[in-house]
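Minutes, structural biology subgroup

Action item carried over from last meeting: produce the structure token record for Cation:proton antiporter (Methermicoccus shengliensis). EB confirmed the sequence was re-checked against the source entry. Recorded below for completeness.
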Amino acid sequence: MESILTIGLVLLSLGMGGLVAARLRQSVIPAYILVGLLLGPHGLSLVHPSALLDAFATLGLVLLLLFIGLEFSLKQLLGSYKDITSSGTIDLVLNVGAGVLIGYIAGLGLYEVLFIAGIVYISSSGIVAKALVDFRKLANPEAEVILGIMVFEDLVMAVYMALLIALVSKHNGIGGIAIAIVLIMLFLIATALLSRRFSHIVSRAIDIPSEELFLLTVLGTALLFSVLASRFGISEAVGAFLFGLLLSETEHAERVKERLLPIKDVFASIFFFSFGLIIDPRMLIALAPLLALSVAIGLLSKVVGGVVAGHLRGLSGRASLATGMSITPRGEFSLVLSQLAVASGMSYFVASFTAGFVLLTSIMGVMLTRYSDALYASAAKIALRARRAR
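Output recorded by EB:
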């Protein structure tokens, strides 16, 4: 009964927090984290971490990454890989560099710097895509560049996370790390081959008329595939992403999305909530100066990267600025990396830093996306007046 009471309180609170965020036209992700912080042991102390919440959060993480994988198509990626790679590489170099700089300023060790670099680098594809839809910008010329960068980031992060796990795992020797990397690459290659060559077999295997049995089969297979990935040194999250990529090539991709979406929304919200549970507000206050500097660096690196990428793709000044501003929000992947860092024995500094960084960049990023055109117009007017004054 106590568990039912806790879950009921959590879901109701998440619903109310999400409603407030929707009214403010903000992403629900920071709202869910704040609800966890409010109800958790460092807030009202109404909810505490438990095995049940951990299981629900893990399921939410698996479903979240499964859906990200479902959004991609290997055929489309291979068809436009040159444009995606050029834009994505610029974004990668600038923002991983920004993350390393922040880690150096914070005085962190090598492994923590590698986690911070990934946390700062990866944008929230969920927040970015939702903002483009909400503000009716999907038809704009910059939308293709923005989504291409998101695709590149997510694919890079899937490999990056797997390599990080190999580095911080028990395989401390060079030989152990090499073996882990070989296993990771074998699993990735096998998944790609399945997706490209045998998607018709997968389609037939899940061609089940009953919606109930279809749902149970897909969800169960996704969880088992994630566990299988973990046996190869890949996190359950990346395993779910790869399984989503595999399903995206089948004729049932849209059916999977339609049936699993409500379940994903419920459990993904619990994942974000559970992250908020472990955050100590006192740590956020102590980190305020570093967070302010980090957010400034993180926003600037994204905007500059987007502007350069847009310019190289032949976009106008307005569209290039919109590209940079639209990719500034961080979210789900940053939180996943932070969770992996804590699970790998890193200090809770990483979790607290990530919470503050995601909260601030997600809120400010949505605002920058919304007002990018107005900001460009204002900047153009100021530049015009300056030229006339000469």
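Discussion: The chain has a mean pLDDT of 85.
Next step: EB to file the record with the rest of the batch.
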